[in-house]
Each structure stands twice: as structure tokens, then as C-alpha cells.
Write a structure and sequence with these properties.
Aminopeptidase, GNAT_dom, 2 domains, 12-stranded mixed sheet, 12 strands, alpha+beta, MshD_Acetyltransferase, acyltransferase activity, transferring groups other than amino-acyl groups, 8 helices, Acyl_CoA_acyltransferase, GNAT family N-acetyltransferase
């Protein structure tokens, strides 16, 4: 096994490696070169701070790291199925941790599926610790009467600093405001009541995925979040998904369940604090 950072691989080579590594994953994940390129750009993935494992000069596994200030995010770890079982994840981190420390990174965060016992075991061996539980939801919104006084409109001039004050939980890295601002895949929708913004939602109309949603605490229990989700359901003829909802937010969890969105996946958020 040889180890190297990934800046010398082409986007096509990275795409093939990613898709082969996730071919048997718990949920279907498949990238095109353009989609992977957008992920790298919007999440601030740095290939010279990411790592691959190679056999006879052919890549067989990888870890992608995004960097913002002193924080790193594991944006994807994968090993091609035929090459698993060699402790590759731990060995890749043995290689890349000194590089991350030298770059000033003091912590790394990631999400891992609850059933992915081998990955969790590897991460804990490296030193990652569980921080909290994240719930992922999917389904079609049950049709219900929407408050006719609520108007939902797409907006382009979004004051996220103001809207973030309404959060019940902080979105994970790939759904963060920093990521959304750099992504071309998401649209922002605001709900208006009496001509004032009372809630908002960020969603991908190509996949039905909701990245963020929140309602002004002063306007809750008036059907605003329901109106936002119903608006997305009207635009996207398929199942909606909302990933990485904080598992310690019963108000949000019960709201989604009551709208016929079902929890289909549980993840752990884990963090590694790097010592000098």
C-alpha cells in the first residue's frame, strides 16, 4: 500500500474511485464528474489535504477533507470493496494527520451511519468520539390545508445572518450556509405573513432535498413550515428528504413525522480533536 494526497488525480479518476467505493453502500450514492466537482467547490474540499491509498499506482480508497479556518470535515471516506479489510482508513489517517496539523487544523468532524460498525470502529480507533445523533427523513408530504395568508416565494437576496437566529439546530457541513452560498444546486424560499418573512427553506429542486428550514419562534404553530414543505412538494414530484436533523430536537422530529416524513437513517456526528 502506498499513500498520497489527491491533487494529482483528475476529476474523472476521483469520480470513478468514489463510485466504486460506494457501490455497496447503505444508501445509493453516485456522482458524475460535474456533481463531484460542485461538491468539492461548495464544501471547500482541498485535495492536497485529502488522502488516497494506492496499490500498484492504482487508487483503491480515499478520504476527502474540507477545510474552513482551523476546522476540517471528512466529506467522504471509501475503499473499493475488493480492497477492504486492511485497516486502510486508519492507515490513511496516519498519513494525513501530520499534514492537517501542519496546516493549522485543530479538529475534524464527520458523520457516519449508525449501522456502519466497521467504520465506527475505525474512527474510534483513530480517536474520534461521538458528539450527537442525527436523523434523516424521507417521504411525501401528506396533503393538508395550508394557511391561505402565508405566501411562499423564491428569493435571491437572502439575509442568512438574520434567518440563522431562528435555527433549532445548526446544519451539518454539507448543508451549512457556507456550502449553500457556493452551490448552484439550491434555491431559497421564504414564507411571508402580513408581508413579513416568518420562515424559510433551502432546497434542491432536482432531488427534493431540504438543506435548511426554520420558522421565526414568534410565528410558530401557524402552518408556516407546513406551507414551505407543501410548496416544495408542489414543485418536486417525488419523495422529499431532510438529512441530519439533530436527534435532540423533539419539536422538529415530531413535526416531520406528523407530516408523513419517515426516519430512514440514523447517523452519528463524531469529532476528533488534534493535539500538537
Amino acid at each position: 500500500m502506498q499513500f498520497s494526497t489527491l491533487e494529482k488525480l483528475t476529476i474523472s479518476e476521483l469520480t470513478v474511485l468514489f463510485n466504486k467505493s460506494f457501490a455497496d453502500y447503505f444508501v445509493k450514492i453516485e456522482f458524475t464528474p460535474d456533481l463531484l466537482k460542485e461538491k468539492i467547490y461548495s464544501e471547500d474540499i482541498q485535495l492536497d489535504k485529502s488522502v488516497g491509498v494506492f496499490l500498484n499506482n492504482e487508487p483503491t480508497g480515499f478520504i476527502l477533507h474540507a477545510i474552513r479556518n482551523n476546522r476540517a470535515y471528512n466529506a467522504g471516506t471509501g475503499v473499493i470493496p475488493a480492497f477492504r479489510g486492511n485497516n486502510a482508513t486508519c492507515k490513511m489517517y496516519d498519513f494525513i494527520l501530520p499534514i492537517l496539523k501542519k496546516a493549522g487544523v485543530s479538529e475534524i468532524e464527520l458523520e457516519v451511519i449508525q449501522q456502519n460498525t466497521p467504520a465506527i470502529k475505525s474512527y474510534r480507533k483513530i480517536g474520534f468520539e461521538k458528539e450527537n445523533i442525527l436523523k434523516c427523513f424521507e417521504g411525501k408530504i401528506n396533503a393538508s390545508p395550508v394557511n391561505k395568508h402565508i405566501k411562499v416565494k423564491e428569493t435571491t437576496d437572502t439575509d442568512f445572518a438574520h434567518l440563522e437566529k431562528w435555527w433549532n439546530w445548526k446544519p451539518t457541513w454539507q448543508y451549512s450556509t457556507e456550502t449553500i452560498k457556493k452551490s448552484s444546486s439550491y434555491k431559497v424560499f421564504c414564507a411571508f405573513l402580513n408581508n413579513r418573512i416568518c420562515g424559510y427553506m433551502v432546497a434542491n429542486l432536482n432531488s427534493g432535498r431540504v438543506a435548511q428550514f426554520a420558522v421565526n419562534p414568534a410565528n410558530r404553530n401557524q402552518g408556516i413550515a407546513t406551507a414551505l414543505l407543501q410548496h416544495l412538494s408542489d414543485l418536486y414530484n417525488g419523495q422529499l428528504t431532510i438529512n441530519n436533523v439533530d436527534g435532540e430536537q423533539p419539536e422538529s422530529l415530531s413535526f416531520l413525522t406528523n407530516r408523513s416524513l419517515n426516519p430512514f437513517l440514523t447517523q452519528y456526528k463524531m469529532k476528533l480533536i488534534l493535539t500538537t
